[in-house]
Amino acid sequence: MASGSAGTDTGGAGGGSAGAAMCPPGLPSATEIASTPRADQNLELLALRVSGGIIADQAIYDRVERDVGTIRALEPRVGGIQYFPRSDGKSMELTPDAPIYSAMRAGQYRDWDCLNQTYVVSNTQFLDASPPFQSNVLLTLKGIYDIEAVTAQYGALAGVKAEYGGPSGGDGPTICLTRESDLWHYVFDQAGGDCPAGCTEHTYYHFSTTAAGAVASLGEIPQDMASPYTSAEACR
Question: Would you say residue 114 has pLDDT above 90?
Answer without folding.
Answer: yes
